[in-house]
Amino acid sequence: MVKICCIGAGYVGGPTMAVIALKCPSFEVVVVDISVSRIAAWNSDQLPIYEPGLDEVVKQCRGKNLFFSTDIEKQVSEADIIFVSVNTPTKTQGLGAGKAADLTYWESAARMIADVSKSNKIVVEKSTVPVKTAEAIEKILTHNGRGIKYQILSNPEFLAEGTAIQDLFHPDRVLIGGRETPDGQKAIQSLKDVYAHWVPEDRIISTNLWSAELSKLAANAFLAQRISSVNAMSALCEATGADVSQVSHAVGKDTRIGPKFLNASVGFGGSCFQKDILNLVYICECNGLPEVANYWKQVIKINDYQKKRFVNRLVSSMFNTVSGKKISILGFAFKKDTGDTRETPAIDVCKGLLGDKAHLCIYDPQVTEDQIRRDLSMNKFDLDHPVHLQPMSPSSVKQVSVVWDAYEAAKDAHGVCILTEWDEFKTLDYQRIFDNMQKPAFVFDGRNIVNVDKLREIGFIVYSIGKPLDPWLKDMPAVA
Ligand SMILES: NC(=O)C1=CN([C@@H]2O[C@H](COP(=O)(O)OP(=O)(O)OC[C@H]3O[C@@H](n4cnc5c(N)ncnc54)[C@H](O)[C@@H]3O)[C@@H](O)[C@H]2O)C=CC1
Ligand SMILES: O=C(O)[C@H]1O[C@H](OP(=O)(O)OP(=O)(O)OC[C@H]2O[C@@H](n3ccc(=O)[nH]c3=O)[C@H](O)[C@@H]2O)[C@H](O)[C@@H](O)[C@@H]1O
């Protein structure tokens, strides 16, 4: 029986291994983690992450051929294939701080593998890592090798949160990079055999190690670039009277461009786009390519501009001050159908409004009050480290309340701010919300999900990213 062990039971390790276990019933799959609470949650009815369809997959396999454990060393020593899916956040200190990937967790996992292994292993990079990481890992493993042979493969993950299970069931492609030696090719074939249980052969691509590592960074950079491109257009739409949804539709009809990933927003979030682009920028700089580095940096600059622009629009349209005003924040997760808040644009928008002394009343169907308070009090980049290494009791943020109902959040508010595109926000009773708000009542839609005309009929002053401006807003300075 093939034994698979995955180090890191997070957003990638958990769902990916659950799907492998489901599709490969003859394999034993064990997911291990240093976080005791995370493993306990995986073994309970309340899984540690919210992901549509995940519960069903886990329920079908857990206890049969899918296990979650903190007995890391035992499970690693017994495995044939070891996936490493640990955090690779942006470095906060030292060389490359604010840009380079922090490989502390990866290195400690590799050293542990080297320490406990007694048989040959295939070690799979599942985390997103800088190009050439496999070379460093190889050195760590073979240094302490005691004659044990390791083959390192790069098998980056392309799932998106909120659709992880569907993405894993029907991936556009599975990418496997390995050494171009007979042993390297044999290892690639072993991993291909795992995915071949459910992924069509023509969707399993193999490359050399460095191409696979770089393709992951490139894919995320291209995706983020599309969002920054449409967000840059949204600013121009507001200045000219064009409508960004119409522009996106027209542009996306070109089959060379395609319709996906062209929704203007308050900015992209999530744990990966920013960190992976910063990582790419750092690699370019280290390779003496400042022009290439600057090109990609611009994607992040536009994203920061978009978030700042949104806050400035909001404040300037409310008579240039939100001091003491209640602003209702609908949605805190970085996108719908996830409870993940890493790098969510909501953090920057809320911090911007708090800087102008607003009172915030926040509602998100999947994010806890504790998480919101942590996010608003912690430093940027600290949030993507393992949970048990984060401060236990973050300092409490004044001027913020968290409620469990959108109507409660909007009651007596001066403005409503939509920051996540949760479906339930599309069907709220906006008349009821309007009736219970201070007047003039404002809606700032950072996701373009409300019916602007209908809301204006009710009496709201509406700002929707990249849409023709409300007459009220036309006279306000659109500074950024
Ligand atoms: N979140 C996503 O949608 C995607 C993430 N990725 C990449 O996958 C990697 C993991 O990301 P997530 O799953 O989101 O992170 P996560 O933070 O949800 O999970 C990582 C887990 O690794 C554990 N861990 C850290 N060091 C460990 C060690 N030495 N031994 C055992 N466990 C350890 C942590 O406790 C944590 O539970 C990152 O490199 C990320 O860039 C790639 C594609 C999608
Ligand atoms: O490496 C990763 O972590 C993953 O990053 C993204 O997945 P994810 O961040 O989970 O979610 P996306 O759907 O890509 O959304 C990212 C952000 O962009 C925003 N977005 C997305 C699409 C769009 O048109 N407009 C837009 O503003 C979303 O609201 C969200 O804040 C990629 O889509 C995955 O392929 C990749 O595996």
From TrEMBL:
<dbReference type="GO" id="GO:0051287">
    <property type="term" value="F:NAD binding"/>
</dbReference>
<feature type="binding site">
    <location>
        <position position="342"/>
    </location>
    <ligand>
        <name>NAD(+)</name>
    </ligand>
</feature>
<dbReference type="GO" id="GO:0005634">
    <property type="term" value="C:nucleus"/>
</dbReference>
<feature type="binding site">
    <location>
        <position position="38"/>
    </location>
    <ligand>
        <name>NAD(+)</name>
    </ligand>
</feature>
<feature type="domain" description="UDP-glucose/GDP-mannose dehydrogenase C-terminal">
    <location>
        <begin position="328"/>
        <end position="452"/>
    </location>
</feature>
<dbReference type="InterPro" id="IPR001732">
    <property type="entry name" value="UDP-Glc/GDP-Man_DH_N"/>
</dbReference>
<feature type="binding site">
    <location>
        <position position="33"/>
    </location>
    <ligand>
        <name>NAD(+)</name>
    </ligand>
</feature>
<dbReference type="InterPro" id="IPR036220">
    <property type="entry name" value="UDP-Glc/GDP-Man_DH_C_sf"/>
</dbReference>
<protein>
    <recommendedName>
        <fullName>UDP-glucose 6-dehydrogenase</fullName>
        <ecNumber>1.1.1.22</ecNumber>
    </recommendedName>
</protein>
<dbReference type="Pfam" id="PF03721">
    <property type="entry name" value="UDPG_MGDP_dh_N"/>
</dbReference>
<feature type="binding site">
    <location>
        <begin position="86"/>
        <end position="90"/>
    </location>
    <ligand>
        <name>NAD(+)</name>
    </ligand>
</feature>
<dbReference type="InterPro" id="IPR014027">
    <property type="entry name" value="UDP-Glc/GDP-Man_DH_C"/>
</dbReference>
<feature type="binding site">
    <location>
        <position position="161"/>
    </location>
    <ligand>
        <name>NAD(+)</name>
    </ligand>
</feature>
<feature type="binding site">
    <location>
        <begin position="272"/>
        <end position="275"/>
    </location>
    <ligand>
        <name>NAD(+)</name>
    </ligand>
</feature>
<dbReference type="InterPro" id="IPR017476">
    <property type="entry name" value="UDP-Glc/GDP-Man"/>
</dbReference>
<feature type="active site" description="Nucleophile">
    <location>
        <position position="272"/>
    </location>
</feature>
<dbReference type="InterPro" id="IPR036291">
    <property type="entry name" value="NAD(P)-bd_dom_sf"/>
</dbReference>
<keyword id="KW-0520">NAD</keyword>
<feature type="binding site">
    <location>
        <begin position="127"/>
        <end position="128"/>
    </location>
    <ligand>
        <name>NAD(+)</name>
    </ligand>
</feature>
<dbReference type="InterPro" id="IPR008927">
    <property type="entry name" value="6-PGluconate_DH-like_C_sf"/>
</dbReference>
<dbReference type="InterPro" id="IPR014026">
    <property type="entry name" value="UDP-Glc/GDP-Man_DH_dimer"/>
</dbReference>
<dbReference type="GO" id="GO:0006065">
    <property type="term" value="P:UDP-glucuronate biosynthetic process"/>
</dbReference>
<comment type="pathway">
    <text>Nucleotide-sugar biosynthesis; UDP-alpha-D-glucuronate biosynthesis; UDP-alpha-D-glucuronate from UDP-alpha-D-glucose: step 1/1.</text>
</comment>
<dbReference type="GO" id="GO:0006024">
    <property type="term" value="P:glycosaminoglycan biosynthetic process"/>
</dbReference>
<feature type="binding site">
    <location>
        <begin position="8"/>
        <end position="13"/>
    </location>
    <ligand>
        <name>NAD(+)</name>
    </ligand>
</feature>
<dbReference type="GO" id="GO:0003979">
    <property type="term" value="F:UDP-glucose 6-dehydrogenase activity"/>
</dbReference>
<dbReference type="Pfam" id="PF00984">
    <property type="entry name" value="UDPG_MGDP_dh"/>
</dbReference>
<comment type="similarity">
    <text>Belongs to the UDP-glucose/GDP-mannose dehydrogenase family.</text>
</comment>
<dbReference type="InterPro" id="IPR028356">
    <property type="entry name" value="UDPglc_DH_euk"/>
</dbReference>
<dbReference type="Pfam" id="PF03720">
    <property type="entry name" value="UDPG_MGDP_dh_C"/>
</dbReference>
<keyword id="KW-0560">Oxidoreductase</keyword>
